[in-house]
């Protein structure tokens, strides 16, 4: 019988005015992966750094016989990829924390009345948890990793990676 516990998911918050948010929560691991994708200049680098796959495995899964497969040296267009991505670091954070955040907000009244949880991102396609930074800071103090299954701490750098700040400036 295993007694190992699953580690709490690490979520981070920080400012993202460039994307229309005073503050937003992102999944730390997903944000770091997005940062690696943003650095990829070629498809081969994207596959290795973001997907963590070998080129041959990628081609086999995505292109079957490989007849129409691109070359690993082909340019990787991060902006175009980001525009098409289905699950962003904000979505992942929302999946992990939305229910608990709504419960906490409901018990704290005006202290947390600026926090929003759900759809309606500026781009219109992401679920997110956002709000004023001071309220997100208070929210972070109310999270119990053992009970809630996640941690919440401020990390502006990871937020910038998860929100792909480089596409806004």
Notable traits:
169 residues, 8 helices
Structure description:
- The chain is of the alpha+beta class and 169 residues long.
- The chain has eight helices and five strands, in the order ββαααααββααβα.
- The strands form two sheets. It has a three-stranded mixed sheet with strand order 2-1-5, with helices on both faces. Strands 3-4 form a two-stranded antiparallel sheet.
- Strand 1 (9-16) and strand 2 form a beta hairpin.
- The longest helix is centred in the middle third of the chain and has 20 residues, at 89-108.
- 31% of the residues are buried.
Quick recap:
The chain has 169 residues and is of the alpha+beta class. It has eight helices and five strands, in the order E-E-H-H-H-H-H-E-E-H-H-E-H.
Spell out the blueprint of helices and strands.
Blueprint: E1 9-16, E2 21-27, H1 28-39, H2 43-51, H3 55-63, H4 78-84, H5 89-108, E3 116-118, E4 128-130, H6 133-141, H7 145-148, E5 150-154, H8 156-162
Parallel strand pairs: 1-5
Antiparallel strand pairs: 1-2, 3-4
Helix pairs in contact: 1-2, 1-8
Q: N- to C-terminal separation?
A: 52 Å
Strand order of the largest sheet: 2-1-5
Order of helices and strands: EEHHHHHEEHHEH
Rg on CA atoms, Å: 18 Å
If helices are DSSP runs of H or I spanning 4 or more residues, what is the number of helices? 8
């Amino acid at each position: 019988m295993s007694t190992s516990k699953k580690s709490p998911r690490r979520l981070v918050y920080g400012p993202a005015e460039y994307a229309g948010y005073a503050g937003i929560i992102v999944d730390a691991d997903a944000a770091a992966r997005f940062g690696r994708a943003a650095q990829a200049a070629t498809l081969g680098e994207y596959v290795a750094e973001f997907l963590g796959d070998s080129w041959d495995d990628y081609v086999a899964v995505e292109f079957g016989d490989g007849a129409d497969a691109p070359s690993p040296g082909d340019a990787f267009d991060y902006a175009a990829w980001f525009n098409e991505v289905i699950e962003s670091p904000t979505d992942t954070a929302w999946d992990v924390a939305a229910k608990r955040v709504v419960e906490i907000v409901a018990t704290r009244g005006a202290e947390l009345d600026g926090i929003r949880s759900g759809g309606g991102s500026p781009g219109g396609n992401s679920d997110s948890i956002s709000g004023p930074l001071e309220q997100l800071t208070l929210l972070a103090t109310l999270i119990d990793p053992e009970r809630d299954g996640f941690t919440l701490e401020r990390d502006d750098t990871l937020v910038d990676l998860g929100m792909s700040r480089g596409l806004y400036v």
